[in-house]
Amino acid sequence: MRDVPPPEDLGEGLWSIPVPVPDNPIGFTHVYALPTPEGPVLIDTGWNHDTSWDALVSGLGKAGHTVDRVVGAVITHFHNDHSGLTGRLREASGAWIAMHPRDIDVLDRLSEHDPRERAASVIAQMTRAGFPDEDIEAFRASPTVFRPPARPDLALNDGERVPVTGLDLRAVWTPGHTPGHLCLHLPDRALLFTGDHVLPRITPHVGQFPLDSPEGDPLGDFLTAQAGIGDLPDADRLLCLPSHETRFTDLPGRTRRIVSHHEERLTAMAALLSQGPTTLWELTSRLEWRRPWEHMRITARHMAASETAAHLRTLEERNLAARKGPMDLPRWVAVDRSHRPE
C-alpha cells in the first residue's frame, strides 16, 4: 500500500484527512473536514475498513473535533472509497448523509440484488462482451462485487447549498464518473472540491457496464461536465482539492487536457473499428493501456472493458459506430460517413 500522508491543516479550519484504502493501489482518499457553527461537515468518508475508520477518527482529532460532533457528510459519489464509512459515521454521530439523487438511484438498484446475483450479472455481461473462458473463470473464482453503503438521507441537487449555517458550499453536478457525481464549490474562499471528476495527473475512469446500462452516454455527459466545470465564473483562480493525488490550480487548462485525452481515445478507437467488426473484448485488448493487456489482472481488464464500452456509446451517439450481430455477442463497426445522406 502507498504511504498515507498525515492530516493537513489547510487554513481557516479546513483540514484534509487522508483515509487509507487497504490492499488497493489507489492508496488513500482525501476526506475534507469543514468547520461550521453546528459542527464539522465532511466531504466524503472513505473506505469501509477498521484501519480507514481509525484514520478518520484520528484525523478529526488532530483537527480539533470528535467524530460524534460531525453534523453531516456530503458524498461526491457512491464508490466505496468515498462512501464506505457513511453507515459507521451515522451510527457514531447521527450525521446526515447527502448525495446527488442520481447516485442514490444507483444504490437503490444495486441494493435490490444480493452480491451473488450481482456477480452472476457481471459474468453474463463479460460473456456477452466476448471475454474468453479463462478470464470469466478467473472472475468467478474471486469476484469483486460492489457492496452498497448506507443509503443517504438527503438528496443534493445541482446548485443547491449544503444545509448548514455559515457555509456557502454549493453542489455542482458533474456526471460521468458516476451518474450523480458532485463537485462542491466554496466561492467565498475560491475553493473547489473536485472529487474524482477532475484529477491533476490521471484521467478519471468513465465506464459503461452492463452494455445496456440505463445511464445513456456517460462519457458524453462527462465531457460536457468537464467543459462546464472549467467555465465556472472564478475557474481561473480556484484552488482545486481532489479526492486523490494533490491539490492543483488552472482548472480550465486541466479540463481541456482531460477532454483532449478522451477525444484522442475516440479517434483511435474509430480507426480500429474501421478494420472490421469487433467484440468489446477484442477492441479493448487491442487498445493501449498504462499496463500491457497481458499483464492486467481480471478486475483491471473488466474496468478497461467498461471504459471501452463508454467510448463506444459516445461513438454511437456521434454516428461514428454501430452495433451489429446477435444480442448475445454484439460486434461494433465503423460508420462510413462518406455515404451518409446530407
TrEMBL record:
Signal peptide: none
Pfam (any one): Lactamase_B
Domain Metallo-beta-lactamase stretches: 28-244
InterPro entries listed in its UniProt record: Metallo-B-lactamas, RibonucZ/Hydroxyglut_hydro, Sec-metab_biosynth-thioest, WH-like_DNA-bd_sf
Top-level taxon: Bacteria
Protein name: MBL fold metallo-hydrolase
Organism: Nocardiopsis alba
